[in-house]
Amino acid sequence: MDEKTREEIALFRYGLIAPLLNGQIEAKEYFQQMEGKVHSIPYYGERKVAAKTMQEWLLHYRRNGFDALKPKSRSDRGDSRRLSPDDKDHILEVRRDFLHMPVSVFYEQLIQRGEIIKNQVSYATINRLLKKHKLAGRNHMSFHPEKERKRFSYDKVNVLWQADLSHGPYISINGKAKKTFLIAYIDDCSRLVPYAQFFISEKFDGLREVTREALIRRGKPTIIYADNGKIYRSETLQYACAQLGITLAHTQPYDPKAKGKIERLFKTIQTRFYPLLKSDPVNSLEELNKRFWEWLEVDYHRKKHASLNGKTPHQLFQSQLDNITFIEDLSILDNIFLKRAVRKVKLDGTITLEKRLYEVPSQYIGQKIEIRMDEQAVYVFEDGKKITKAIPVTMHDNAHVKRGQSPFAVSDTSHHGEELDRV
């Protein structure tokens, strides 16, 4: 069993204990709900999970964190199967991301993605499976948008943060009009914005920055509630939330009303902030964010909200500071938001990542190693700990038979007693 699989299993286990960990439900009631329920567990397939097992996971997590939920490494030599119960569950999960597709198109997508083999699994089989679970045609709930909805609002701050991305104004960068995107969080109780920022792309790097700053400035929420957008479904965000003990919840597909408070925030920004830019335009992304943050603190956070009984978001949030959990060791944020990958080290001590060569310690030659990265650097991790930084290899260096001395040569000689020749 490789490290990625172990982390996927740990993430599943965390998902089961998260409601207990965050006090969302009483243990007795939760175990009654889970009794006899079959779960699709990564690597293991469909299994039931006993209450005692969940209690053990909860204890392990509280004592030693996310890594304590990982199983011991094992070899994974599973044979290919036809449409087993595990395969069915996986197909249903994939279907939830492609509800807009007709079943016939979805069937072809499964074949192209390598999820099924055409000669082994027919269209009729997939169609019957989806119909049985009401994920085909107009049986699915997404075709009934006016379903019953109950209003809710938490009475304590930092219980739930709603998250979303909105299209921002165009700004001029180097003489060209660039579209901007606003990534934001809003606290469900106080309507305060823990953090928000404009970017010129919709990539995860922006969400990483906003989440990190929100946690530093406003403490840690119990739940983050987001839609099914790609960045909010990323493994990096899931792992980060699991490490911090935050429950990551998602809305149902095609259900924007489920995030009413942050949608209302975006509407307020459009009607009260964007008009200020028309009368006094900005000339850079930096200026846009500076003006926005000033407006957010002076205008939005200090205005009374009717839904807050005449209080301002700032007043309500400040009145509950004693209930806020701040992250004591902020250095943890430097690692948990790194993107992850697994690479096999070549005989010359290098790996390829996003069409670039990186050099790693020669002790890993021939092994698969875990890589974590951000836009600044690439790191080698082992057992969840940062070991060293991978060194970029330029194409000029790589074109020569003998490159310059490896930056890892000193450490290698100390471990092995001899210096390796590079080829």
Structure notes:
Mean pLDDT is 83; it is low at 74-81, 141-151 and 410-423. The protein has a five-stranded mixed sheet, sandwiched between helices. Helix content is 36%, strand content 19%. Strand 9 (350-353) and strand 10 form a beta hairpin. Helix 1 (3-21) crosses helix 3 (51-64). The protein has 423 residues and is α+β, with helices and mostly antiparallel strands. The radius of gyration is 25 Å and the shape is globular. The protein has four domains: 3-69, no CATH class; 85-143, no CATH class; 160-332, 2-Layer Sandwich (Nucleotidyltransferase, domain 5); 338-416, OB fold (Dihydrolipoamide Acetyltransferase, E2P) (Beta Barrel), CATH 2.40.50. The relative contact order is 0.08. The chain is built from 15 helices and 14 strands.
Can you describe this structure in just a few lines?
This is Integrase catalytic domain-containing protein. The protein is an alpha+beta fold.
Order of helices and strands: HHEEHHHHEEEHEHEHHHHHEEEEEEEHH
Shape: globular
* Uncertain runs: 74-81, 141-151, 410-423
User: What share of residues are in beta strands?
Assistant: 15-25%
* Multimerization state: single chain
Order of strands across the widest beta sheet?
A: 5-4-3-6-7
Helical segment tally? 15
Characterize the biggest β-sheet: 5 strands, mixed
* Number of domain units: 4
Cα end-to-end separation? 32 Å
What is the CATH superfamily label of the largest domain? Ribonuclease H-like superfamily/Ribonuclease H
The residue fraction in helices comes out at 25-40%
CATH architecture title of the largest domain: 2-Layer Sandwich
Radius of gyration: 25 Å
Pfam families: Mu-transpos_C, rve
GO biological process, one term: DNA integration
Protein name: Integrase catalytic domain-containing protein
GO molecular function, one term: nucleic acid binding
